[in-house]
Amino acid sequence: MDVIDKALEFEKTSLRSLSTSDRVKISREAKALILDLNEIYKEDHDADIMDLMKRLTAMKRKVEKRLKGALMVA
Q: Exposed (0-12), middle (13-18) or buried (19+): which is 70, by Cβ within 10 Å?
């Protein structure tokens, strides 16, 4: 359950005043956590894991939305 603990800790990450490289790092880390959680979910079909994946996906989308906006301007 180490992945779940990492995901819960990652969820507490502040998304305020991040540099572009921090946003890229957060996006990649979120993707890796989501994929790892998905492997666990395939075996257990636990609704709590699905909820956690949804919350991480929402965070990831928020960061990527900001990244794509920043990249389009540059």
A: exposed
Residue-wise pLDDT for 31-60, tens only, equals 999 999 999 999 999 999 999 999 999 999
Contact 7, 51 (CB under 8 A): no
Q: Which pLDDT score, from 0 to 100, does residue 69 have?
A: 80
Q: Which phi and psi angles does 18 have, rounded to 5°?
A: -105, 145
CA–CA gap between residue 48 and residue 6 (Å, rounded): 15
Q: What is the pTM of this model?
A: 0.86
Using an 8 Å Cβ cutoff, are 49 and 41 in contact? yes
